[in-house]
Design a protein that fits this description.
The complex is a heterodimer of chains A (about 70) and B (about 250).
Chain A lengths: L5 E3 L2 E5 L6 H8 L26 E4 L2 E4 L3
Antiparallel strand pairs in A: 1-2, 2-4, 3-4
Chain B lengths: L7 E8 L9 H12 L10 E5 L13 E9 L3 H15 L7 E6 L6 H10 L7 H11 L2 E4 L6 H14 L4 E2 L13 E4 H8 L3 E4 L10 E4 L5 E4 L2 E9 L2 E4 L2 H4 L3
Parallel strand pairs in B: 8-11, 9-12
Antiparallel strand pairs in B: 1-3, 1-4, 2-3, 2-6, 4-5, 7-9, 10-11, 11-12
The chains are: A alpha+beta (about 70), B alpha+beta (about 250).
Chain lengths: ~70, ~250
């Protein structure tokens, strides 16, 4: 089953396991709100990935989506 | 350092200038560096990006990073600030909370507390009051230019991390002939010559010798280690390849 953003404490969060960005890429592929962040702020070599999105907010071991 | 030409070296660091979809802090730092360099590119070689603590209590936009550069100029502190602050104000996003820190590397100052502040800002929540108190104690210029002004925390922390010399990635990527078409094979010596990096460093901290062959592709980026611009590589099936973004994330 594909991992998805979960609503925790009012924030849509995606937990990240180390450098496994599979879910991050799959979710971004189907998202209308993706905006690529500055290249210097990207951490996945596949650009269309939630971890590279300007609308994500980094948390410890997770990202928050501010678009959802 | 003061030279016969009257050039003086400064560290400039800015933080919290952007918002979603606006010009990034790194780009603004690069622009300020060029404005201060009087078109002498050698006077400002590179901008470093320093990752700070990510925590729900810190109101960063998306990643909480500061951008720092060193510049050599004959300008006075007031002249540097006039140029840098004007650009910071005009280019920062309306919703941003920009801050700037400026350090005269020729002036005597205590490095240890500044470095400690930078290291702490990677692991804990710091306050504006703490940043201003330290800046005043050390005689470092620190000022805010809009919004809550919380960017002063990252600006001061970025100075400390740049001085520490073992933190951050170099802004931007290196262009090399043939890279856009795919993989390029070059020796370490050739890569140093083409890019201007100080050295090539393995992901385990080993400095590679000049003749070692490298296989470069995609985005070629460097990190700041031992006060040197270091092209990071890793071994893949017996070949040294430039680090992936996933690997660079840890720097």
């Amino acid at each position: 089953m594909q991992q998805a953003f979960e609503l925790r404490q009012g924030r849509w969060q995606l937990t990240l396991a180390e450098e496994d960005y599979g879910a991050s890429r799959q979710l971004a592929a189907g998202c209308d709100g993706f905006i690529a962040d500055d290249e210097d702020e990207q951490v996945d070599d596949i650009e269309r990935s939630c971890v590279n999105c300007a609308r994500r907010r980094w948390l410890i071991d997770a990202i928050e989506c501010t678009f959802l | 350092m003061v030279r016969a030409s009257g050039l003086r070296s400064w560290l400039v660091c800015i933080d919290d200038t952007d918002d979603i979809g606006t010009k990034g802090t790194g780009e603004i730092a690069e622009e300020i560096a060029h404005l201060l360099s009087d078109n002498h590119l050698s006077r400002c070689a590179f901008v470093t990006r320093h990752q700070l603590y990510v925590h729900p209590d810190i109101p960063y936009t998306s990643h909480n990073s500061a951008m720092c550069f060193q510049v050599r100029t004959t300008k006075s502190q007031d002249e540097i600030l006039a140029i840098a602050v004007a650009h910071l104000r005009s280019e920062s996003a309306a919703a941003a909370d920009p801050g700037i820190a400026l350090l005269d590397l020729h002036s005597p100052f205590e490095q240890a507390p500044l470095i400690a502040f930078g290291e702490q800002a990677k692991e804990e929540v710091k306050t504006k009051a703490q940043a201003y108190a330290l800046a005043e104690q050390l005689g470092i210029h620190l000022s805010e230019h809009g919004g809550t002004g919380l960017g002063v925390i990252g600006a001061l922390a970025g100075l400390g991390l740049r001085l520490q010399g073992n933190d951050g990635r170099i802004k931007g990527q290196f262009k090399m002939p043939g890279l856009e078409a795919g993989e390029v094979s070059l020796s370490v010596g050739e890569v140093i010559e083409l890019t201007g990096v100080d050295r090539v460093l393995s992901d385990s901290g080993e400095q590679l010798c000049f003749k070692t062959p490298l296989y470069l592709s995609g985005k070629v980026k460097a990190v700041y280690r031992d006060h040197q611009v270091s092209l990071l590589v890793y071994q893949d099936q017996g070949r040294w390849r430039n680090a992936l973004k996933q690997q660079l994330k840890h720097y």
